[in-house]
Amino acid sequence: MPAAGTRARSAVPSTTKPAPIWHPSPNFGSRRDGLTPTLIVLHYTAMDSAQAALERLCDPQAEVSAHYLIGSDGTLWQMVREEDRAWHAGVGEWHGQTDINSRSIGIELDNTGKHPFSDMQMATLETLLPQMMSRWAIPPEGVIGHSDMAPGRKSDPGAKFDWQRLERQGLAAAVGTQTAPEDISYDNFRTMARAAGFTADVPNETLLAAIRLRYRPWGTGPLSPADFKALSPAPRET
Predict the structure, then answer these.
(1) Is the per-residue pLDDT at 238 higher than 50?
(2) How far apart are CA 182 and CA 114, in angstroms?
(3) How many other β-carbons are positioned within 10 Å of the β-carbon of residue 52?
(4) Distance between first and last Cα of the chain
């Protein structure tokens, strides 16, 4: 779920497709320092139902929100305009930049984190993502999980989320294909992780867990060549 923010003015609905159900949240503000979205952050709600999540995301006492919520049946709600700053990301960084709320659009997915995401839910996400990416010129590398920008603090959208499904459609950064370096050390791993966007200011095990959660959630054991390969940039199609 999102982190806290500060209350601001009311919003007006967006006209994006697939047509969302407009359910405005009071929990938003203006993007700071003239920033516009360069990231899309995916979350799971970790709640029992989409309705419970919707109520929390629109509760002024909770001081949390997101731009969109997608139910397990594919229903799409919009709570904050994309132009505005929702309170979903909290403390963290990506490519050394903080205030991710001002730099991103937040999408909550109705899921506890313990089971796969439904096909209807993924289909709605796959329709919504390309439109946002086109509107804001966000590349696949800009679609990240909450756990990517907050290693150790957050784990969503979790090990059950099908990142490879998005990767195949060019909607998320693909796992690398390059050969791992000869020096399988955490110093090298941190350098590659930082180049990929992850913060290196966390313990080794925390960083490794966050990267595995995103690229190879089945991975276990000590740092391996496969972990390096996951971080190497995949070739872009021209």
Answers:
(1) no
(2) 36
(3) 12
(4) 37
Superfamily of structural domain 1-173: Peptidoglycan recognition protein-like (3.40.80.10)
pLDDT tens readout for residues 73-121:
999 999 999 999 999 999 999 999 999 999 999 999 999 999 999 999 9
Where does the chain hold its CATH 3.40.80.10 domain(s)?
Answer: 1-173
Q: Encode pLDDT of 127-170 as tens digits.
A: 999 999 999 999 999 999 999 999 999 999 999 999 999 999 99
Q: What is the pLDDT of residue 8?
A: 35
pLDDT over 50 at 11, yes or no: no
Percent of the chain with pLDDT over 70: 89
Cα–Cα distance measured from residue 139 to residue 199, given in angstroms and rounded to the nearest whole number: 20
Residues with catalytic function: 108
Residue 72 structure tokens: 């397990």
174/35 Cα distance (integer angstroms):
26
CB atoms within 10 A of CB 169: 11
